[in-house]
């Protein structure tokens, strides 16, 4: 991963880390989706996130952003966490692949 890609991934991972410190009951009350703006030096990066209810005891919180690489090509970045039976964990790359 080049340094620009790493910056984008670090932004997502940082937002996920913040959310992972919330109590499980508060996470369940999050809206289904939203967009936040994150300032990185002189740039503002738009980060979208969604809350997905998998079953009665499992939620996925997926954070996404992308950067323009070529005129019509955007490189996606993902990060996320899962809430299962009130236990908060980072999502695996395989789990995140379902949202790519």
Question: If you had to describe this structure to a student in words, what would you say it looks like?
Answer:
This protein has a 5-stranded antiparallel beta sheet. The protein has one domain. The protein is globular. It starts with a helix and ends with a helix. It is 28% helix and 50% strand. It contains 3 helices and 5 strands; from the N terminus they run ααβββββα. Strand 1 and strand 2 form a beta hairpin. The protein has 100 residues and is an alpha+beta fold.
The number of domains is 1
Give unreliable regions as ranges. none
Shape: globular
**Mean pLDDT reading:** 92
Question: What summary fits the major beta sheet?
Answer: 5 strands, antiparallel
Count of extended strands: 5
Q: Strand pairing plus helix content: what structural class?
A: alpha+beta
Order of helices and strands: HHEEEEEH
Largest beta sheet: strand ordering: 1-2-3-4-5
Helix content: 25-40%
Strand content: over 45%
- From the alpha-carbon coordinates, what is the Rg to the nearest angstrom? 14 Å
Summarize the structure.
The protein has 100 residues and is of the alpha+beta class. The chain has 3 helices and 5 strands, in the order H-H-E-E-E-E-E-H.
Give descriptors for this structure:
single chain, 100 residues, alpha+beta, five-stranded antiparallel β-sheet, 3 helices, 5 strands, 28% helix
